[in-house]
């Protein structure tokens, strides 16, 4: 159980998606007399804790010192904690499924238009460019060309994900109150109080999730007090909660394409003999889980007193 190596990059994708929300904030300095824009600054964004920025700011406490200090404005963000959310808990036994089939070369041409192409997914077909011609080539899994069988089909599945709330903090550092207000005003109107982003949490299973990001609190800090030679920093701290789900490892199992039932005249299998056999197979037999298919049911009656041996697959 524990110790099975897997990494779905669920937390990493949430953090990246969260940071992208604040990656295009621009501050404009305007001439109050003419109304013309004198400077446009795209606010730099970095994943870093608040203390890291404060240390860099304090490296130049005296304005007469020529040593380098961090430039403002700047935005930083970080993850501050995770908490299990029992209110969004779902049943554990539900499975997300996706069927993949190993293809022979003779089958690839007919199925190529409905096969998902991904470079590093380990799925049916991988596409890459020929180093000499530059044309696309398709690397196929070698299988028996006689046709699709139950051994060539695999069913990938993953169980119900676990709900977690991720706490994230955003820090906006500016040198003036006006720049700080511009940054905050470009963020707050989009959170009412949440903003939803779509995250491709499991590309190999085609699972996407809408993750609401909720704005909880906004704190303001102004280090205006002190000597005139000390540097001023206006700091806005915004706390968010991302309601996401974390998936466990993805497993594979063979696809069942034949079901056989034996009916006996008595519940005592030691003395009873079979009377009827029911076999159900998909129609057509080459159908995948995502195809439009039906079932073929074959019912056979027996009076020979034999029994089916599941180990040998023969009537004995």
Question: Largest sheet, described in full?
Answer: 6 strands, mixed
pLDDT below 50 for ≥5 consecutive residues: which ranges?
107-151
Counting copies of identical and different chains, the oligomeric state is single chain
What's the count of strands? Answer: 18
Average pLDDT rating: 76
Which homologous superfamily in CATH is the superfamily of the largest domain? Answer: Myoviridae tail sheath stabiliser
Structural class: mainly beta
- SSE arrangement, N to C: HEEEHEEHEEEEHEEEEEEEEE
Fraction of residues in helix: 10-25%
Radius of gyration: 31 Å
> What is the distance, rounded to the nearest whole angstrom, between the alpha carbons of the first and last residues?
41 Å
CATH class of the largest domain: Alpha Beta
CATH-assigned fold name of the largest domain: STM4215-like
Q: List the strand order in the largest sheet.
A: 3-4-9-12-11-10
Strand content: 35-45%
Count of alpha/pi helices? 4
Describe this structure in words.
It is a single chain. With 316 residues, this protein is mainly beta. The chain has 3 domains: 10-89 and 163-246, 2-Layer Sandwich (STM4215-like); 95-159, no CATH class; 256-315, no CATH class. 11% of the residues lie in helices and 42% in strands. It is built from 4 helices and 18 strands. It has helices at 10-20, 50-58, 105-111, 177-185, and strands at residues 26-30, 37-42, 45-47, 74-84, 95-101, 125-129, 136-140, 153-159, 162-174, 194-202, 207-222, 234-246, 251-254, 259-264, 274-283, 294-301, 308-309, 314-315. Strands 3-4-9-12-11-10 form a 6-stranded mixed β-sheet. The two termini are 41 Å apart. The model is unreliable at 107-151 (pLDDT under 50).
């Amino acid at each position: 159980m524990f110790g099975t190596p897997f990494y779905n990059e669920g937390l990493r994708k949430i953090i990246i998606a969260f940071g992208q929300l604040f990656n295009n904030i621009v501050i404009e300095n305007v001439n109050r007399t003419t109304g013309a824009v004198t400077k446009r600054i795209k606010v730099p964004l970095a994943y870093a804790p608040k203390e890291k920025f404060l240390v860099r700011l304090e490296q130049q406490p005296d304005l007469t010192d020529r040593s380098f200090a961090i430039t403002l404005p700047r935005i930083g963000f970080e993850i501050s904690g995770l908490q299990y959310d029992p209110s969004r808990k779902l049943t554990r036994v539900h499975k997300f499924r996706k069927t993949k089939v190993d293809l022979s070369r003779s089958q690839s041409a007919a199925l190529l238009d409905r096969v998902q192409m991904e470079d590093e997914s380990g799925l049916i077909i991988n596409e890459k460019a020929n180093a000499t011609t530059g044309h696309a080539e398709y690397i196929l899994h070698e299988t028996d060309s006689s046709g699709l069988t139950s051994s060539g089909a695999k069913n990938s599945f993953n169980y119900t994900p676990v709900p977690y709330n991720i706490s994230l903090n955003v820090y906006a550092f500016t040198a003036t109150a006006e720049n700080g207000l511009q940054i905050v005003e470009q963020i707050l109107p989009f959170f009412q109080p949440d903003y939803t982003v779509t995250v491709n949490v499991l590309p190999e299973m085609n699972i996407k999730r809408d993750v609401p990001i909720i704005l909880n609190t906004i704190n303001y800090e102004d280090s205006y007090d002190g000597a005139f030679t000390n540097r001023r920093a206006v700091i806005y701290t915004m706390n968010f909660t991302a309601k996401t789900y974390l998936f466990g490892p993805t497993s594979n199992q063979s696809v069942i394409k034949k079901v056989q039932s034996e009916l006996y005249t008595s519940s005592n299998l030691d003395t009873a003999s079979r009377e009827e056999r029911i076999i159900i197979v998909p129609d057509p037999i080459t159908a995948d889980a995502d195809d439009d298919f039906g079932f073929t049911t074959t019912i056979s009656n027996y009076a020979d007193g034999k029994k089916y041996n599941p180990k040998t697959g023969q009537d004995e």
